[in-house]
Amino acid sequence: MSTSADWLIVPILRILSDGNYCSLSSLASQLHSTPTIISNAIEVIDRDGLADVAKLDSLSYRCCSPIVWLDPYVILHFSGSASISLHFAIHIIDTIESTNAFLLSKINDYQCSNDRVSVVAAEFQTGGRGRLGRKWYAGVGDSLTFSLRWYFMQDASKLAGLSLVIGIAIIRVLKLFSIEYANLKWPNDVLFNSQKLAGILIELRGNVTGPCFAIIGIGINFELSDKIKATVNQNQGITDLFAITGKKIDRNIFLGFLLAELYGILQDFEQNGFSSFKQEWLSYQCYDGNFVKLTLPDSTVIEGIVAGINNDGSINLITSSGEKSFNVGDISIRLK
């Protein structure tokens, strides 16, 4: 649940990120607020680990590390050729509840025309969402959280395996940054050393017989604070690009490369379906041959050994009652 202080968090950090100390009264004046409200917002920043803010005294603050803010012009510059960049309409929003929810509310909006791919990226989400109703945790400038809207002529039943090809696109871009050995966990997580690095949330809207829209939400961890890492309750743990590489990777460059990769891979997927990506996905997958627990949306638990995937992206499990395939669910590894 967002509060009035939440909407001041990014504006405050924009002022403080130059590295100079700024007084509470100056912040209040610049942001047309009160010192009390500004102080409350800074307390939220510190409490939730949204950014590293230092206090000189009780009335002066600064960011300990500079924040590289998202810039649509830089993103488009790194999205490849001019012909590809022209296909995107990028919107950067300081504070938003959820980029997926925002695009879902704009499905019929004139700004979401079918000839351009609408992309919404947020500096800070107050209600970021993962699959199965989970909350997505991220600070300001430490993650890449965005959603894009893709128009498909097919009906939703033809889009099985969509989250799997999105995972492939992320892996391909990670390789461009010399990040090898990342894995894909069926159906929508990117792992590194068994720890979660990125997640995908896809929501479909449209007619039974087509066409339909896919809202594709992606969250990638760049350099999470210790407080956020401690907050996230994941069985496999959580990691980020800085922990993997020891380098600060520019989110603008990464997003530009990723949008170019997504544009090509989604066009290919629309023409050929998941089957043409199956072997590449299997080369990145984890848990094959492992004993796992699959939790279905109705909380039913299926245990079995992972035995690959099918051309439609469904996963195969060898269970006590034979081999079965599943299109939905959440997998966690279990010791036999």
Commentary on this structure:
The chain has a seven-stranded mixed sheet, with helices on both faces. A five-stranded antiparallel sheet has the order 14-13-12-11-15, with no helix packed on it. A three-stranded antiparallel sheet has the order 1-3-2. The chain starts with 5 loop residues before the first helix and ends with a strand. The chain has eleven helices and 15 strands. By secondary structure, it is an alpha+beta fold. It has helices spanning 6-16, 24-30, 35-48, 72-77, 82-85, 99-105, 162-176, 226-231, 241-245, 251-272, 278-284; strands spanning 22-23, 53-57, 60-63, 88-96, 117-125, 143-152, 183-185, 189-192, 195-206, 212-221, 291-295, 301-309, 315-319, 322-326, 330-333. 31% of the residues lie in helices and 29% in strands.
Unreliable stretches (pLDDT < 50, length at least 5) are none
- Overall structural class, as computed from helix and strand content, comes to alpha+beta
Rg value? 21 Å
Strands of the widest sheet, in order across it, are: 4-5-6-10-9-8-7
Order of helices and strands: HEHHEEHHEHEEHEEEEHHHHEEEEE
- Biggest pleated-sheet summary: 7 strands, mixed
**Based on CA inertia axes, which overall geometry fits?**
globular
Q: Overall mean pLDDT score?
A: 89
The share of residues in helices is: 25-40%
Percentage of residues in strands = 25-35%
Quaternary state of this entry equals single chain
Tally the beta strands: 15
Alpha plus pi helix count: 11
- Beginning-to-end CA distance, first to last residue: 40 Å
